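Table S2 (continued). Query chain:
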Amino acid sequence: MIRLWESKEDWKTEKAGREVRGVIPQTKKRTVSELFSIVLFIVLLFSSISSQIVLGENLLSPTFTYTTATPIQDIDMPSTGDFIVIGTSTSEKSEIYGLSLNGTLRWRYQISSWVSGISVSPDGRYIAVGSKGGLYILNRDGQLTNKLIPPEIAGSPENAFHAVTISPRSKYIATECNGVIILYNITGELLWDYPDIRGYVTEKGIAFSKSEKYIAVGFYELGVYLFDITGHLIWKVPIPQNVRVVKFINDDLVVVGTSTSNYSSGHIYVFNTTGNLVWDYKTQGGVSSISISNDGNYIAVGTEKSGLGIVYLFTKKGQLQWSYDTGNPVNDVAVSENGSLIVSGGGSGVYLFDIEGNVVDSYHLTFSVHSLAISPEMKHIAFGTSNKVYYVSLSKEVSYEKTKNTTANLSLDSGYLTVYSDPPKARVYIDGNYVGDTPLENYMLPTGQHSLKASKTGYHSYNTTVTINPNKTTVVNVQLNAQLATLIINSNPLGAGVYINGTYHGITPLTLNLTPGTYELKVVEEGYQNFTKIVTINPGEKTNITASLILIKPQTTIPSQTTSSTSSTTTITSESSGGRDSPALTQTAQTATGGGIPKTYLLTGLIVLGIIGAALKMRDKSKERQSAVEKPKPPLKKERAKLAKAPLQSSSKKPAPVPVPEKREKTESTTSSLIPGFPVELLSRYEPLKFLGEGGFAKVFKVKRKKDGKVVALKIPRIDERTSKTFIREVSTWLHLNHPNIVKLYDVDILPVPYLEMEYIEGAKVGDKVVRDLDKYPKPVDEKRALKLIKGIVEGLKYAHSKGIYHRDLKPLNILLKSDLTPKITDWGLAKIGTATSGRMSSAGYSPLYAAPEQLMPSKYGNTDARTDIWQLGVTFYELLTGRLPFEGYTYEEVFGKIVDENYKFIPPSKIDPELSKYDAIFEKLLAKKKEARYQSVDEFFKDLEKLSKAEKRKAELEKEVEELKKSLAKSMEALKQSKTADEVLKNRRMVVEALGKLALAYAELNRKAELLNALNDLKFYTVQNVTDLTNAISTVEALIKEDLPISEDFVERLKVLVHSIKRENGG
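Corresponding output:
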């Protein structure tokens, strides 16, 4: 019996089943009938193959060719596949051709300016043509139905329509003109336009979703934007390369193709409609074209690079099916509606592939193929070179479904990879490219070795090398190890014992690195109620717990008085926690019979006891002062802390009888009404008003000084005895700083507890909330406000640096805000204090997200100095403008690596918001990894800000001038058209040249390259003597656009000379 399997998987399944049942095929001698059956089958099989695909049968041989009068720009055909539309163009005229499938010319339409692109509606009823002269809408017979010009800039000769795209249901036309995104209905009625983004959109840079719900637009230098059909911007994503192609997969995924400026490499990014990246892939060569099957299951990609052009086929989930190098740049690709066939066109001609990547046929040409078009089922293919159109009719059946069993299993250059992980849903990267999440099954790869990486947030990455063997599946089981979680425990008061699941770990403040999970935390201190909490800690995260311990009130028993002589006892007990008992103090007092103690005796006794108590108190204070002078250590040891906190003191001797104060309950009530956490040792000096907040290092209170009633802020740091030795020395430098942008420090001491008394900053009101520091201020901040804030911080730093004082932990949290948004820098000198009290994420007394390279790796980058503050100022400024941090990551190691890696570059602000492009150069210096390349002083940075401010003022003036010149040019052009005499022609011609020349120079100074290119092209109509120099200038601008380079001052100066010569040529 001869058995054919539909796929390799079917064969594996049946084989496994036979082996389980113990039925293993044995080699045996074939009978004559069996051999005859095999031979017959092979003959029939190859007969079937030859009726479908015969390599070398010239499937791509053209049915006809057609030669055009001008160079071909674009080719398209409707879904019906019944005619072909060709767009041709020169700088002076363009022609649109309509061809029948037999090669006859149906119609031809001429346009007096160059054509940028064409789009045929899927139903074949309309053709949209983008050009410099306007947007032309033709019907299927080549007749003009509408000509459109954006109303707000009507008549301006520099306007040109790019990326003209008709929607899948033939209802809308989307296009870009001078950075404005415009949507018309199919008849040309303006529906909406989006404000000038000042970006450049390539001809393949606009796409509709399948149901026409969304429009995606890719800007060459800015990134990708997603709009809904009403024109509302849903999101924009900056992309670090030039966007060249945008496509939609159904209604749910946006596919973006990019390229570096020199086409050395590119990237495929796939985003969902919420703007999240689903998968990406780095390509060899810049992406030139993308085509997607009708069901969205397959994505064909073409790339271009000198000496290389690769065709890739991906699945919707990002799995690379195959790739093929044609040897020359690929300019266009197309995939059939079911994904079974892929065609590419480029420098090597045209290639036809099946779904497995086999070359079904190829057709080589002398000239490069610029554009191609297909009918959905790929029965019709049209492609064009410089001025010739080729049409191919695939009359034979070419179907993957009929050929897969004859070719799919014959390839020995690929195998399969399956990856499982515990836990699942880990991201899998093959050779650095994201390919999907686990479980990843039967992912096709070329044979040989590949790097494999599996990563999941909160777990350590898994890295290995896998070997892929021909037609075999390699299975990798990945066990991901969770990152430790950090638990930070503080208490008020400090020095309390910490128990995790009943096991003692130390005293507060305490930082523990634990396995992620749920724990019972108990904080215990004698004389206080136990603090118990169930805590869940997650991988790679920090959890802060502060236990505010509640003081246990002493319980008293007052004896009753009787008329008979008896003994009564006053028992004073103190409850303790943590299983440590304190002995009760039992006092016995004899009472007299017949009415008790006389009042005069009682009064006398109280007075004597009061005098004795006062004397003892004075003696204790004297000893305390003597102890402070002899050995100035803060009472932070656990034993001394207990002594100070104990409600009652006991001694080894039996205490004398002590009467119970009558107003004890009132005193205790006053103490318990205090703000929790405020040190009782400071109540004699300050009246606590409000708890302001706390971090890992200190608590902050708003208090009133009792000596003069001044409201100040009191910071209570959590430091141990060892740290207290350097506390005053490091912080004392702050006392010498007196500046409007620096928080004033009034006093600092370690007795009776460590504290800092400083200026109280009231905070700024944001909505219905009060924000006290820049960390909590909403970001990004508008540019004007950000500059005001950063200039205030610069002034404070400049003053401190002039005194040789550096902050070293400058960050938004350490910048307080007054009600008028005046920034004030706080926490000077605390960076070194933080060293002894912080966990790993601030292990050197600074925050790693704002840390400079020299703080993380001094062995490579040197020691800290004033330029360290400049780096941290740069990070803060970047965050204010963009709302993001330049160096981000999920773990400390990831952030650390990005900051110290010389080759890692942060995303320029312009890629996040194009309006911030003017700051790109400034941040290059602010955040230079090497100190020597940074600004050497804050004053140098401030001067650059001032220069930028002047440049922005000049830019605003130029923008205004451009708008006036455009109006003037429109009037002059109209006047030139209406000229009736030779003198009027010369006069109006001079006015047009004058306006065009000024516009060109203004665009050059503004670095608006696309508009400059249009202006220079328009000047070509008004010069003969300078045409060579003007052509060279145009070529230079085109190169600058292609290479993504700015216009230099030298070019502007040479352009001034050229414009002047053209003006003189026209009598100016």
